[in-house]
Amino acid sequence: MRCSILGCGWLGLPLANYLVQQGVSVKGSSTRDEKLEFLAEQNIDPYKICLYPDRIEGNLDDFLDTDVLILNFPPGRRSQDVTATFPETMSRLIDRIEAANLKRVLFISSTSVYGNPPEKVTEESPPSPPMEGSRALLTVEEMLGRHEFETTILRISGLVGYNRKPGRFLAGRRDLSAGDAPVNLLHRDDCVRAIWEIIRQEKWNDTFNVCADQHPTRREFYTYAAQTQGLPLPHFLPNSAHGGKWVSNDKLKHLLNFEFVYPDPFQMVEA
Looking at CB atoms within 10 Å, which of 8, 13, 93, 173 has the fewest? Predict the structure, then answer.
């Protein structure tokens, strides 16, 4: 099997390494010259590919000569007018995907597309993205679904693990709201494994939420995480309204027989 991963960063690189361990031939892209040699040392075929709304730089035709394309290319948080530029960029890429006659695409999206309704959300819940970045992701999800190649969407929750320590997120902050809202987190290792299972089990033309089983409150979790890491504790306002969504992973677990290594966010604090 051959996979191409567009974006070998904090998630894409360990994903590439994991796929190599499974015997997959992996092409990986970066926008930085200095990273290409490092990718080659990891047995990842390196490509420098840069995507822009008006052009694509790099040997994309060869990169798209693959069995599965994994799009791990989030909209930039600081990009201006991301609701226009990200879909324009992806539209240009989608045209090239079709021209390459590529059959299968896996798009890394986010559970942020649901917004923050005070209820349980499943893959059938109507999206209501409040932020520009999540609106851009939803637009691209819809664009991918209108084409001939098979696309699976992974909507992932907040990624943690390794050097991304959750205790730092709110340490020392004061007068925080929504202390009783549930957290929706995902350890990077479980995200990588979920991606592999989609590919291995050939679950295409579908959408899956990827989020840990347990949902402690923000107050409980971030206080514990900061305390465990020896950081200043966050302060939440008393009597916070519950608020906030609770992301269901039932579909992923049932259709893929998937079990999380880190089902409880408290396990992720030092993982």
Answer: 173
